[in-house]
Amino acid sequence: MTDTIGGKYTLLDAGRAGRLGTWHTVSTAEGKQRGALRLEDRGLTDPAAAQRLADAVSAQARLRVPGLLNVIDQVTEGRHSWLITNAAPSPTVAQALAAGVTLPPAVAALIATDTAQTLLRLHQASLAHGELNTHGVVVSAGGAALLSEAGYGHAVLGTTPGPGHDAAGWSRLLAELADACRDAETRQLLRQAGQQAEAVGGSAGLTAALNTLSAAAQQITGFGDRAALKALAAQMHPMSAAPVSAPPVSAPPAATTPVSAPPVSAPPAAPAGGMPGGVPAAEETVQLPGGSHSGPPVPQQTPRAAPPTAVMPVVPPDGATRLGNRAAEEQRKSGAYQVGRAVPPPVHQPQPDVNLRFGQGVPPAPPAWQIAAAQAAPPPRRKKSVGKRIAAFFSALTTVALLVIAGYVAWTWWQENNNAVQVTKVTVTPVIPPTTAECDVNVDVVGLIETDGQAGKITYEWLRNDGETSGALEQAVKKGQRSVQVHLFWRFQGKGTRDAEATLRILKPTVSQGSSKFTYSCK
């Protein structure tokens, strides 16, 4: 095998075995390290298999998921086809574990969260990896965990990977990371997250496990700082790492004539950019026009088990008020005479003069107790003393204050438990380095938070790579407001050059983040 590929790339190592061929680290004419996968004939003798593989590579090239080893070029030399990726393919997590490396807790947690975010971005585009394991997780020199050969094996075999494959593969990956971690609490956290992802299944399982893992990982010392991951990549340098074999893919029935993979139509490369979600892009990453982006978070799926039937309380019927029958003695008491008819007086009394009465006649006199009560004078009203009036005033004032406090507490509780807003995307605008000759400048770092248009509050914080943090901040959004900008003002003083990185991390309602790098220089 020659030391160059197509006259453009120089081989730097003996290579390691992959799923569909051999991975090599190569160098460009500018001295930048890339990955090169030499496709073997055994999996591509079938023209249909070769076409499916080319379609899978092209789909990922158009999508440009930042957490993948993205194909940026294809070289055909002789009977071999080479896929050139944007970063070196070594070292892998499998190589690190085979060398007996003990993973620090922050490194294990970063690898777990990086891979979960990449898998979810694939799912958002209706794609999946399908064969996730430690052999396909690459630790880049930039301190990120990248996935290689996403869906390649399924494309050759003619099968379709799905979120279920990824949830199970990620669970097994976390189990191996836990075995290599030296911290007992982190081991337990990784195993619980893997079990949760596999129990729920699919994208919903990955989303739930990632939220749990990200929230708990904030307590791990060094989580979010990628210096330890960069140190692991430097320690397991691809030039000195021993090749680690991976099981080959069972190829479909071979055809009579070897066929190389069809060319991959990749758009021209654009300048490098940061990886959304807080994961830095691989070193020397080549981006497509438009840059990498993160879509809205994957919604959680409906649980498989049907919810229990709600039992409605039995409401008793309103009790009807039944009034007893009342006699109408008053109507009969005055009925001694009727119109046009005389009634003779009693036999034993003298005959009085006859008087005609009309209608019901004279009503009877009220009972004596009613007359006495009507004639009795009302009791005199007792005047309140000044002390009692003051006490009553303060009592009323205290009641109003308690009602206001109770209302505020209830409103706060309602806001916290009915915060309907969901963050769909977090980006930090690339910072243009200051061009002034002064060595005392303020840099305005602008972050853009995109939402689903619901109302609520967003809790966030700014992190700087010099160790400074803004602390938890809140940003309220109104219903229908789908984006909001937040700012970080970073002051630089003195002469020299400094590589700066600002990270915008969303704490509530869900954990997500974005970052941007720039260089301050003053001579």
TrEMBL record:
The Pro residues compositionally biased stretches are: 260-270
Q: Which InterPro entries match?
A: Ig-like_dom (IPR007110), Kinase-like_dom_sf (IPR011009)
The transmembrane segments are 390-414
Q: Which residues form the Ig-like domain?
A: 436-523
The cross-references to PROSITE patterns, in alphabetical order and at most eight, read: IG_LIKE (PS50835)
The record's annotation in SUPFAM superfamilies points to: Protein kinase-like (PK-like)
Q: Where is this region: Disordered?
A: 242-309
Q: Which UniProt keywords apply?
A: Membrane, Transmembrane, Transmembrane helix
**What is the name listed in the Swiss-Prot or TrEMBL entry for this protein?**
Ig-like domain-containing protein
The record lists the organism as Catellatospora chokoriensis
Q: Which classification does the entry list for the species?
A: Bacteria, Bacillati, Actinomycetota, Actinomycetes, Micromonosporales
